[in-house]
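Researcher: Please translate sequence to structure tokens.
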Amino acid sequence: MCVREVVGAYGQLVVDVQTLADTDNLFQAGLTSLANVTVMLGLESALAIEFPERMLHRSTFESISAIRNAVEELLGQDGAT
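Model: Translation complete:
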């Protein structure tokens, strides 16, 4: 499951995630703090990762691109999701 799919499934956005650019602000698209936690847990489950405390900041989850960068760092590889 890719980052965009997880955000679409758990983010409860007010717009279709497919219409957003990778750099669009997810919070402006309706992502709430609660939905952000749900997205994080969905990613952890789908990708068998765990976000460390140092990544638990709004900026980590503010766009598809930011989330993808964090996931790639956690997986230690390029091109993840």
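Researcher: Any highlights?
Model: The helical segments are 3-10, 33-47, 64-75.
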